[in-house]
Amino acid sequence: MNPHDDNARISARLADFALKLTLDDIPSAVRERAKHLILDGIGLALATSAFDYAGIALAAMRELGDGQSTVFGKSGRLALRDAMLANGLLVHGLDFDDTHSRGVIHSTASALPCAFGLAERERASGAEMLTAYIVAMEVSTRVGAVAQSGFHKVGFHPTGLVGAFGCALAASKLMRLSPRAAMHAQGIVLSMAAGSLEFLEDGAWTKRLHPGWAASSATTAATLAKHGYIGPEAAYEGRYGLYSLYLAEGAKPDLSIATAGLGETWEIDQVALKPIPACHFTHASSDAAIALHREHALAADAIEKVVVRVPGPVVDVVCEPVANKKRPANSYDAQFSIPYIVATGLLKGRFTLDDLEPSALADAAVLSLAQRVEYEVDAESTFPRHYTGEVIVHTRDGRRFAHREAVNRGSSDRPMTNQGIVDKFHDNALRVVSRERADRVRDAVLGLERASVADLAGILRQPD
Protein backbone atom coordinates (compact mmCIF):
# COMPACT_ATOMS: atom_id res chain seq x y z
CA MET A 1 0.00 0.00 0.00
CA ASN A 2 1.34 3.40 -0.98
CA PRO A 3 1.41 5.53 2.20
CA HIS A 4 0.94 8.66 0.10
CA ASP A 5 -2.34 7.39 -1.34
CA ASP A 6 -5.27 9.29 0.16
CA ASN A 7 -6.93 5.93 0.79
CA ALA A 8 -3.93 4.51 2.65
CA ARG A 9 -4.38 3.43 6.25
CA ILE A 10 -3.63 6.14 8.78
CA SER A 11 -1.10 3.83 10.43
CA ALA A 12 0.77 3.46 7.13
CA ARG A 13 0.91 7.22 6.56
CA LEU A 14 2.09 7.90 10.11
CA ALA A 15 4.72 5.17 9.85
CA ASP A 16 6.02 6.65 6.60
CA PHE A 17 6.37 10.07 8.24
CA ALA A 18 8.08 8.70 11.35
CA LEU A 19 10.62 6.48 9.65
CA LYS A 20 11.66 9.02 7.02
CA LEU A 21 11.96 12.04 9.31
CA THR A 22 15.48 13.38 9.88
CA LEU A 23 16.62 16.11 12.21
CA ASP A 24 17.51 18.26 9.20
CA ASP A 25 13.85 18.09 8.10
CA ILE A 26 12.79 19.84 11.31
CA PRO A 27 13.01 23.64 11.54
CA SER A 28 15.63 24.87 14.00
CA ALA A 29 13.04 26.71 16.13
CA VAL A 30 11.04 23.49 16.51
CA ARG A 31 14.17 21.55 17.49
CA GLU A 32 15.05 24.23 20.04
CA ARG A 33 11.56 24.19 21.53
CA ALA A 34 11.63 20.40 21.70
CA LYS A 35 14.84 20.47 23.72
CA HIS A 36 13.30 22.94 26.13
CA LEU A 37 10.24 20.71 26.53
CA ILE A 38 12.59 17.83 27.36
CA LEU A 39 14.35 20.05 29.89
CA ASP A 40 11.03 20.94 31.50
CA GLY A 41 10.16 17.25 31.78
CA ILE A 42 13.48 16.33 33.39
CA GLY A 43 13.21 19.20 35.89
CA LEU A 44 9.80 17.94 36.89
CA ALA A 45 11.12 14.39 37.22
CA LEU A 46 13.82 15.57 39.62
CA ALA A 47 11.31 17.47 41.76
CA THR A 48 8.83 14.57 41.79
CA SER A 49 11.47 12.17 43.11
CA ALA A 50 11.10 13.70 46.58
CA PHE A 51 7.41 12.75 46.89
CA ASP A 52 6.16 9.63 48.67
CA TYR A 53 4.32 8.11 45.73
CA ALA A 54 7.53 8.28 43.67
CA GLY A 55 9.48 6.38 46.31
CA ILE A 56 6.77 3.75 46.57
CA ALA A 57 6.62 3.27 42.80
CA LEU A 58 10.39 2.99 42.51
CA ALA A 59 10.49 0.43 45.31
CA ALA A 60 7.91 -1.64 43.44
CA MET A 61 9.89 -1.42 40.22
CA ARG A 62 13.09 -2.49 42.01
CA GLU A 63 11.30 -5.55 43.37
CA LEU A 64 10.62 -6.58 39.78
CA GLY A 65 14.36 -6.64 39.10
CA ASP A 66 17.35 -4.54 38.20
CA GLY A 67 18.51 -3.67 34.70
CA GLN A 68 20.67 -1.34 32.64
CA SER A 69 18.29 1.59 32.07
CA THR A 70 18.57 4.98 33.76
CA VAL A 71 15.89 6.42 36.02
CA PHE A 72 15.89 10.23 36.02
CA GLY A 73 17.84 11.52 38.99
CA LYS A 74 18.57 8.08 40.49
CA SER A 75 21.83 6.15 40.62
CA GLY A 76 20.19 2.71 40.45
CA ARG A 77 19.05 1.22 37.17
CA LEU A 78 16.00 -0.77 36.14
CA ALA A 79 14.91 -3.00 33.30
CA LEU A 80 14.05 -0.96 30.21
CA ARG A 81 10.26 -1.03 30.43
CA ASP A 82 10.25 -0.57 34.20
CA ALA A 83 12.51 2.47 33.82
CA MET A 84 10.08 3.91 31.26
CA LEU A 85 7.20 3.38 33.67
CA ALA A 86 9.14 5.07 36.46
CA ASN A 87 10.33 7.97 34.31
CA GLY A 88 6.82 8.61 33.01
CA LEU A 89 5.57 8.76 36.58
CA LEU A 90 8.35 11.16 37.54
CA VAL A 91 7.64 13.53 34.64
CA HIS A 92 3.86 13.47 35.11
CA GLY A 93 3.57 12.99 38.88
CA LEU A 94 3.21 16.65 39.85
CA ASP A 95 0.75 17.38 37.02
CA PHE A 96 3.04 20.28 36.14
CA ASP A 97 4.04 18.99 32.68
CA ASP A 98 3.24 20.31 29.23
CA THR A 99 -0.14 19.95 27.51
CA HIS A 100 -1.17 19.95 23.88
CA SER A 101 -4.45 21.84 24.10
CA ARG A 102 -6.25 20.45 21.06
CA GLY A 103 -5.19 16.87 21.77
CA VAL A 104 -5.73 17.34 25.53
CA ILE A 105 -2.61 15.26 26.13
CA HIS A 106 0.53 15.55 28.27
CA SER A 107 2.67 14.34 25.41
CA THR A 108 6.21 14.75 26.79
CA ALA A 109 5.40 12.50 29.75
CA SER A 110 5.28 9.46 27.45
CA ALA A 111 7.46 10.65 24.54
CA LEU A 112 10.50 11.47 26.69
CA PRO A 113 10.73 8.20 28.68
CA CYS A 114 10.29 6.18 25.48
CA ALA A 115 12.76 8.10 23.32
CA PHE A 116 15.34 8.39 26.12
CA GLY A 117 15.07 4.77 27.25
CA LEU A 118 15.41 3.22 23.81
CA ALA A 119 18.06 5.71 22.70
CA GLU A 120 20.12 4.78 25.76
CA ARG A 121 19.76 1.06 25.04
CA GLU A 122 20.48 1.43 21.33
CA ARG A 123 23.50 3.67 22.05
CA ALA A 124 21.91 6.34 19.88
CA SER A 125 23.12 9.87 19.41
CA GLY A 126 21.41 12.82 21.00
CA ALA A 127 20.24 13.85 17.54
CA GLU A 128 18.56 10.47 17.06
CA MET A 129 16.87 10.69 20.45
CA LEU A 130 15.64 14.21 19.72
CA THR A 131 14.20 13.14 16.35
CA ALA A 132 12.39 10.17 17.91
CA TYR A 133 11.00 12.40 20.67
CA ILE A 134 9.64 14.80 18.04
CA VAL A 135 8.06 11.87 16.17
CA ALA A 136 6.22 10.79 19.32
CA MET A 137 5.09 14.34 20.02
CA GLU A 138 3.83 15.01 16.51
CA VAL A 139 1.94 11.72 16.24
CA SER A 140 0.42 11.57 19.72
CA THR A 141 -0.86 15.13 19.61
CA ARG A 142 -2.53 14.63 16.23
CA VAL A 143 -4.06 11.29 17.23
CA GLY A 144 -5.43 12.93 20.35
CA ALA A 145 -6.81 15.93 18.48
CA VAL A 146 -8.83 13.68 16.15
CA ALA A 147 -11.15 12.87 19.07
CA GLN A 148 -12.32 16.50 19.41
CA SER A 149 -11.97 16.31 23.25
CA GLY A 150 -14.13 13.18 23.25
CA PHE A 151 -11.95 10.78 25.25
CA HIS A 152 -12.54 12.57 28.55
CA LYS A 153 -16.31 12.42 28.04
CA VAL A 154 -16.32 8.65 28.35
CA GLY A 155 -13.71 8.40 31.11
CA PHE A 156 -10.46 7.83 29.25
CA HIS A 157 -7.24 9.73 29.93
CA PRO A 158 -5.68 10.65 26.56
CA THR A 159 -2.15 10.93 27.97
CA GLY A 160 -1.97 7.18 28.46
CA LEU A 161 -4.38 6.13 25.78
CA VAL A 162 -3.01 8.21 22.89
CA GLY A 163 0.59 8.50 24.04
CA ALA A 164 1.02 4.80 23.26
CA PHE A 165 0.62 5.40 19.52
CA GLY A 166 3.19 8.17 19.21
CA CYS A 167 5.59 6.13 21.32
CA ALA A 168 5.05 3.06 19.13
CA LEU A 169 6.42 5.04 16.19
CA ALA A 170 9.27 6.60 18.19
CA ALA A 171 10.24 3.08 19.25
CA SER A 172 9.89 1.85 15.66
CA LYS A 173 12.24 4.59 14.50
CA LEU A 174 14.92 3.96 17.12
CA MET A 175 14.70 0.20 16.54
CA ARG A 176 14.88 0.75 12.74
CA LEU A 177 11.72 -1.16 11.89
CA SER A 178 10.43 -1.52 8.35
CA PRO A 179 7.41 0.57 7.33
CA ARG A 180 5.16 -2.49 7.51
CA ALA A 181 6.42 -3.48 10.96
CA ALA A 182 5.91 0.10 12.19
CA MET A 183 2.34 -0.07 10.93
CA HIS A 184 1.81 -3.33 12.81
CA ALA A 185 3.33 -1.81 15.99
CA GLN A 186 0.48 0.70 16.04
CA GLY A 187 -2.06 -2.08 15.59
CA ILE A 188 -0.50 -4.14 18.37
CA VAL A 189 -0.43 -1.25 20.84
CA LEU A 190 -4.14 -0.68 20.20
CA SER A 191 -4.70 -3.73 22.43
CA MET A 192 -2.49 -2.25 25.15
CA ALA A 193 -3.49 1.42 25.21
CA ALA A 194 -5.26 2.38 28.45
CA GLY A 195 -5.96 5.12 30.96
CA SER A 196 -9.00 5.47 33.23
CA LEU A 197 -10.15 8.76 34.79
CA GLU A 198 -11.53 6.98 37.87
CA PHE A 199 -8.73 8.56 39.92
CA LEU A 200 -10.78 11.77 39.82
CA GLU A 201 -13.29 10.22 42.21
CA ASP A 202 -10.94 9.73 45.14
CA GLY A 203 -7.53 11.20 44.31
CA ALA A 204 -5.94 7.82 43.57
CA TRP A 205 -2.41 7.70 42.21
CA THR A 206 -3.13 5.74 39.01
CA LYS A 207 -3.04 8.69 36.60
CA ARG A 208 0.65 9.10 37.30
CA LEU A 209 1.32 5.66 35.79
CA HIS A 210 -0.43 6.32 32.48
CA PRO A 211 2.34 7.96 30.42
CA GLY A 212 5.02 5.50 31.47
CA TRP A 213 2.67 2.63 30.71
CA ALA A 214 2.13 4.12 27.25
CA ALA A 215 5.89 4.20 26.66
CA SER A 216 6.40 0.69 28.03
CA SER A 217 3.49 -0.76 26.04
CA ALA A 218 4.70 0.91 22.88
CA THR A 219 8.15 -0.61 23.32
CA THR A 220 6.58 -4.06 23.77
CA ALA A 221 4.44 -3.56 20.66
CA ALA A 222 7.35 -2.37 18.51
CA THR A 223 9.53 -5.27 19.65
CA LEU A 224 6.80 -7.76 18.78
CA ALA A 225 6.41 -6.12 15.38
CA LYS A 226 10.17 -6.23 14.83
CA HIS A 227 10.04 -10.00 15.23
CA GLY A 228 7.19 -10.35 12.76
CA TYR A 229 4.15 -10.29 15.02
CA ILE A 230 1.06 -9.12 13.11
CA GLY A 231 -1.18 -6.31 14.35
CA PRO A 232 -4.37 -4.86 12.86
CA GLU A 233 -3.76 -2.42 10.03
CA ALA A 234 -6.76 -0.19 10.72
CA ALA A 235 -5.68 0.75 14.24
CA TYR A 236 -7.42 4.11 14.08
CA GLU A 237 -10.28 3.99 11.57
CA GLY A 238 -11.26 0.32 11.88
CA ARG A 239 -14.61 -1.03 13.04
CA TYR A 240 -12.99 -1.75 16.41
CA GLY A 241 -10.21 0.80 16.06
CA LEU A 242 -9.24 3.51 18.51
CA TYR A 243 -12.04 5.96 17.77
CA SER A 244 -14.81 3.40 17.47
CA LEU A 245 -13.92 1.83 20.81
CA TYR A 246 -12.92 4.79 22.94
CA LEU A 247 -15.46 7.46 21.98
CA ALA A 248 -19.16 7.71 22.79
CA GLU A 249 -21.70 6.57 20.25
CA GLY A 250 -22.45 9.45 17.93
CA ALA A 251 -19.08 11.13 18.42
CA LYS A 252 -17.62 12.64 15.27
CA PRO A 253 -13.84 12.30 15.20
CA ASP A 254 -12.07 14.17 12.42
CA LEU A 255 -9.73 11.53 11.02
CA SER A 256 -8.05 14.02 8.69
CA ILE A 257 -6.34 15.65 11.68
CA ALA A 258 -4.19 12.54 12.23
CA THR A 259 -2.10 13.17 9.14
CA ALA A 260 -2.79 16.84 8.40
CA GLY A 261 0.38 18.85 7.87
CA LEU A 262 2.82 16.05 8.66
CA GLY A 263 6.31 17.38 8.04
CA GLU A 264 5.01 20.87 7.26
CA THR A 265 3.25 22.15 10.36
CA TRP A 266 4.60 21.23 13.78
CA GLU A 267 2.32 20.47 16.70
CA ILE A 268 5.19 21.11 19.11
CA ASP A 269 4.50 24.79 18.44
CA GLN A 270 1.03 24.21 19.94
CA VAL A 271 2.25 22.59 23.16
CA ALA A 272 1.41 24.66 26.23
CA LEU A 273 3.66 24.90 29.28
CA LYS A 274 2.23 24.88 32.78
CA PRO A 275 2.96 27.91 34.96
CA ILE A 276 1.27 26.29 38.00
CA PRO A 277 1.29 22.66 39.26
CA ALA A 278 -2.32 21.73 38.58
CA CYS A 279 -4.62 20.46 35.86
CA HIS A 280 -4.33 22.77 32.88
CA PHE A 281 -8.11 23.28 32.92
CA THR A 282 -7.71 25.28 36.17
CA HIS A 283 -4.95 27.68 35.11
CA ALA A 284 -6.97 30.59 33.76
CA SER A 285 -9.24 30.54 36.82
CA SER A 286 -6.22 30.40 39.10
CA ASP A 287 -4.63 33.40 37.39
CA ALA A 288 -7.93 35.29 37.54
CA ALA A 289 -8.15 34.65 41.29
CA ILE A 290 -4.54 35.75 41.80
CA ALA A 291 -5.21 38.95 39.84
CA LEU A 292 -8.20 39.72 42.09
CA HIS A 293 -6.06 39.12 45.17
CA ARG A 294 -3.43 41.55 43.95
CA GLU A 295 -6.00 44.19 43.09
CA HIS A 296 -8.33 43.91 46.08
CA ALA A 297 -6.67 41.71 48.77
CA LEU A 298 -10.03 40.65 50.19
CA ALA A 299 -10.16 38.83 53.51
CA ALA A 300 -11.91 35.47 53.54
CA ASP A 301 -14.72 36.63 55.82
CA ALA A 302 -15.45 39.58 53.48
CA ILE A 303 -16.44 37.24 50.66
CA GLU A 304 -20.03 36.00 50.45
CA LYS A 305 -19.60 33.76 47.42
CA VAL A 306 -17.41 33.18 44.37
CA VAL A 307 -18.62 32.16 40.92
CA VAL A 308 -16.12 30.63 38.51
CA ARG A 309 -16.98 30.38 34.82
CA VAL A 310 -15.30 27.43 33.10
CA PRO A 311 -15.59 25.67 29.71
CA GLY A 312 -18.37 23.09 29.67
CA PRO A 313 -16.18 20.09 28.74
CA VAL A 314 -13.96 20.53 31.82
CA VAL A 315 -16.73 20.50 34.44
CA ASP A 316 -16.55 16.76 35.07
CA VAL A 317 -12.79 16.98 35.59
CA VAL A 318 -12.30 20.04 37.81
CA CYS A 319 -15.75 20.93 39.24
CA GLU A 320 -17.50 17.62 39.94
CA PRO A 321 -18.23 15.85 42.22
CA VAL A 322 -18.77 19.05 44.19
CA ALA A 323 -18.15 17.64 47.67
CA ASN A 324 -14.77 16.20 46.69
CA LYS A 325 -13.69 19.38 44.96
CA LYS A 326 -14.59 21.64 47.89
CA ARG A 327 -12.62 19.57 50.38
CA PRO A 328 -9.76 17.81 48.59
CA ALA A 329 -8.56 14.74 50.43
CA ASN A 330 -5.01 14.88 49.09
CA SER A 331 -2.72 16.78 46.76
CA TYR A 332 -4.09 15.11 43.63
CA ASP A 333 -7.63 16.04 44.54
CA ALA A 334 -6.41 19.61 45.04
CA GLN A 335 -4.75 19.77 41.62
CA PHE A 336 -8.11 19.03 39.99
CA SER A 337 -10.20 21.29 42.20
CA ILE A 338 -11.46 24.66 40.97
CA PRO A 339 -12.81 25.55 44.47
CA TYR A 340 -9.50 24.85 46.24
CA ILE A 341 -7.27 26.46 43.60
CA VAL A 342 -9.43 29.59 43.28
CA ALA A 343 -9.76 29.96 47.06
CA THR A 344 -5.97 29.65 47.40
CA GLY A 345 -5.39 32.27 44.72
CA LEU A 346 -7.87 34.70 46.23
CA LEU A 347 -6.40 34.44 49.74
CA LYS A 348 -2.69 33.84 49.08
CA GLY A 349 -2.10 35.34 45.64
CA ARG A 350 -0.36 32.20 44.34
CA PHE A 351 -0.61 28.51 43.57
CA THR A 352 2.67 26.61 43.91
CA LEU A 353 3.94 23.18 44.94
CA ASP A 354 3.88 24.47 48.52
CA ASP A 355 0.09 24.69 48.26
CA LEU A 356 -0.05 20.93 47.77
CA GLU A 357 1.64 20.19 51.09
CA PRO A 358 -0.51 18.65 53.89
CA SER A 359 -0.40 21.86 55.95
CA ALA A 360 -1.78 23.86 53.02
CA LEU A 361 -4.51 21.30 52.33
CA ALA A 362 -5.63 21.70 55.95
CA ASP A 363 -5.73 25.53 55.88
CA ALA A 364 -9.05 26.37 57.53
CA ALA A 365 -9.49 29.74 55.81
CA VAL A 366 -8.92 28.27 52.33
CA LEU A 367 -11.25 25.33 52.98
CA SER A 368 -13.94 27.64 54.33
CA LEU A 369 -13.78 29.85 51.26
CA ALA A 370 -13.75 26.81 48.97
CA GLN A 371 -17.21 25.93 50.33
CA ARG A 372 -18.45 29.24 48.90
CA VAL A 373 -17.01 28.68 45.40
CA GLU A 374 -19.55 27.74 42.73
CA TYR A 375 -19.17 27.18 39.00
CA GLU A 376 -21.01 28.13 35.83
CA VAL A 377 -20.46 26.98 32.27
CA ASP A 378 -18.77 29.71 30.24
CA ALA A 379 -20.81 30.17 27.06
CA GLU A 380 -18.09 32.42 25.59
CA SER A 381 -15.22 29.98 26.01
CA THR A 382 -12.94 29.22 23.04
CA PHE A 383 -12.09 25.77 24.48
CA PRO A 384 -10.19 23.66 23.46
CA ARG A 385 -8.00 26.25 21.74
CA HIS A 386 -7.88 28.15 25.03
CA TYR A 387 -8.63 26.90 28.54
CA THR A 388 -10.56 29.99 29.63
CA GLY A 389 -11.55 31.03 33.13
CA GLU A 390 -13.38 33.87 34.87
CA VAL A 391 -13.70 34.52 38.60
CA ILE A 392 -16.50 36.68 40.01
CA VAL A 393 -16.39 37.62 43.69
CA HIS A 394 -19.48 38.82 45.58
CA THR A 395 -18.69 40.49 48.90
CA ARG A 396 -20.88 40.57 52.00
CA ASP A 397 -21.27 44.35 51.66
CA GLY A 398 -22.72 44.06 48.13
CA ARG A 399 -19.70 44.69 45.92
CA ARG A 400 -18.85 42.60 42.86
CA PHE A 401 -15.37 42.08 41.42
CA ALA A 402 -14.53 40.06 38.31
CA HIS A 403 -11.49 39.08 36.30
CA ARG A 404 -11.41 37.00 33.11
CA GLU A 405 -8.51 35.16 31.52
CA ALA A 406 -9.57 34.55 27.91
CA VAL A 407 -6.24 32.97 26.91
CA ASN A 408 -4.53 30.74 29.45
CA ARG A 409 -0.97 31.66 30.30
CA GLY A 410 1.54 29.26 28.76
CA SER A 411 -0.67 28.36 25.78
CA SER A 412 0.52 28.64 22.19
CA ASP A 413 -1.20 32.03 21.90
CA ARG A 414 0.42 33.23 25.13
CA PRO A 415 3.52 31.07 25.28
CA MET A 416 6.15 30.67 27.93
CA THR A 417 9.52 31.73 26.54
CA ASN A 418 12.42 29.29 26.31
CA GLN A 419 14.14 31.28 29.05
CA GLY A 420 10.99 30.95 31.11
CA ILE A 421 11.23 27.18 30.70
CA VAL A 422 14.86 27.24 31.85
CA ASP A 423 13.82 29.25 34.91
CA LYS A 424 11.04 26.76 35.65
CA PHE A 425 13.52 23.90 35.27
CA HIS A 426 15.81 25.44 37.86
CA ASP A 427 12.92 26.14 40.25
CA ASN A 428 12.00 22.45 40.14
CA ALA A 429 15.43 20.84 39.92
CA LEU A 430 16.93 22.90 42.75
CA ARG A 431 14.42 21.41 45.17
CA VAL A 432 16.47 18.19 45.11
CA VAL A 433 19.86 18.74 43.38
CA SER A 434 22.71 21.21 43.57
CA ARG A 435 23.00 24.21 41.25
CA GLU A 436 26.13 22.72 39.67
CA ARG A 437 24.33 19.49 38.80
CA ALA A 438 21.24 21.31 37.55
CA ASP A 439 23.41 23.40 35.24
CA ARG A 440 25.10 20.29 33.87
CA VAL A 441 21.73 18.73 33.10
CA ARG A 442 20.59 21.95 31.41
CA ASP A 443 23.69 22.16 29.24
CA ALA A 444 23.47 18.49 28.23
CA VAL A 445 19.83 18.74 27.20
CA LEU A 446 20.16 22.02 25.34
CA GLY A 447 23.22 20.66 23.52
CA LEU A 448 21.54 17.34 22.74
CA GLU A 449 22.26 17.37 18.98
CA ARG A 450 25.97 17.38 19.72
CA ALA A 451 25.94 14.89 22.61
CA SER A 452 25.43 11.19 23.15
CA VAL A 453 22.50 9.90 25.16
CA ALA A 454 25.02 7.97 27.25
CA ASP A 455 26.55 11.28 28.38
CA LEU A 456 23.15 12.67 29.38
CA ALA A 457 22.27 9.44 31.20
CA GLY A 458 25.52 9.60 33.15
CA ILE A 459 24.80 13.14 34.31
CA LEU A 460 21.25 12.20 35.33
CA ARG A 461 22.49 9.22 37.39
CA GLN A 462 25.30 11.11 39.09
CA PRO A 463 24.56 11.80 42.76
CA ASP A 464 25.33 15.22 44.31
Automatic annotation (TrEMBL):
Gene3D superfamilies to which the protein is assigned, alphabetical: 2-methylcitrate dehydratase PrpD (1.10.4100.10)
Pfam families attached to this UniProt entry: MmgE_PrpD_C (PF19305), MmgE_PrpD_N (PF03972)
InterPro entries according to UniProt: MmgE/PrpD_sf, MmgE/PrpD_sf_1, MmgE/PrpD_sf_2, MmgE_PrpD, MmgE_PrpD_C, MmgE_PrpD_N
MmgE/PrpD N-terminal domain boundaries: 13-248
Signal peptide: none
Domain of life according to the entry: Bacteria
Ranges where the MmgE/PrpD C-terminal domain occurs: 277-448
Coiled coil: none
Single GO term (MF): lyase activity
PANTHER family the UniProt entry points to: 2-METHYLCITRATE DEHYDRATASE, 2-METHYLCITRATE DEHYDRATASE-RELATED
Protein family membership: Belongs to the PrpD family.
Protein name (record): MmgE/PrpD family protein
